[in-house]
Automatic annotation (TrEMBL):
Keywords: Methyltransferase, Transferase. Signal peptide: none annotated. One of its GO terms (biological process) is methylation. This is Class I SAM-dependent methyltransferase. Residues 54-155 form the Methyltransferase type domain. It comes from the Bacteria. One of its GO terms (molecular function) is S-adenosylmethionine-dependent methyltransferase activity.
Length: 221
């Protein structure tokens, strides 16, 4: 059964919010609240996107739409909320991409209908939404490691619980936490790193502003 806090965290991504997502989150908040311009995370997509890619929590789909995608790639989108799935599917279809969508909770095993053996998995700005400390929500990495190819890469970014440096970041963090959209009060670097290391033999973490980016390889079976 999906917990009510997980549903509450995914609920804000309505068609109306998704229409505003790119100017508000991608352009303004990433740079001015979290001090990590979207182009830095886009570079990770450009580097790691494989032929068979699973994107968990696509939001508006901005990164996938703007990334340099391998020719004839197949992109699978997974989200707890169907609105980001249809929003991103439409945008990617208009670029001629092959897209599949699966409704799923990252805290549960990836549904069989999503498939397995992905060359890459993107998990960008999802873990700070998901409820629980890493001791609980870190199970997501184990579920995703199971569907990553032996030579695949899982990459993404999250905002840990350190106090954002900017006033704008602190105001956004407090507002999103009150609304149940942010659940990162117990998220620290030790918890993130140890749960990633339990699921992958190679883990690299990089801090940019208030954002922690991660790249992992060699899923532990
Ligand atoms: C902050 S948005 C991130 C969007 C995009 N990846 C980005 O980096 O801008 C969070 C996304 O994760 C999805 N999400 C939240 N909780 C989830 C869960 N438990 N399982 C799967 N998706 C979830 C939301 O519906 C939304 O699409």
């Amino acid at each position: 059964m999906i917990g009510k806090d997980a549903l509450r965290a995914a609920k804000p991504y309505t068609p109306t919010f998704l229409a505003l997502y790119d100017p508000w989150v991608i352009r303004l908040s990433n740079r001015s609240a979290w001090r990590c311009p979207a182009e830095i995370m886009l570079a990770a997509y450009n580097k790691h996107l494989g032929h068979r890619h699973l994107e968990v929590g696509p939001g508006s789909g901005w990164y996938l739409v703007n990334a340099q995608r391998p020719a004839e790639s197949l992109i699978t989108l997974m989200d707890l909320n169907p609105a980001p799935l249809s929003h991103t599917r439409k945008r990617l279809h208009s670029k001629g991409c092959q897209v599949r969508t699966v409704t799923g909770n990252v805290l549960d095993p990836v549904p069989d209908s999503a498939g397995t053996g992905f060359d890459s998995i993107g998990l960008n700005f999802v873990m700070h939404c998901v409820p629980g400390s890493f001791a609980q929500k870190g199970v997501a990495f184990t579920h995703l490691a199971r569907v990553l190819a032996d030579d695949g890469t899982l990459f993404g970014a999250t905002i840990l619980n350190q106090r954002p440096r900017t006033l704008f970041g602190r105001a956004l963090s407090a507002t999103y936490t009150r609304a149940g959209a942010f659940n990162n009060a117990d998220d620290n670097c030790t918890g993130l790193e140890s749960t990633l290391r339990a699921a992958f033999a190679y883990v690299e973490l990089t801090d940019v502003g208030d954002v922690t980016m991660f790249t992992t390889r060699y899923p532990i079976r």
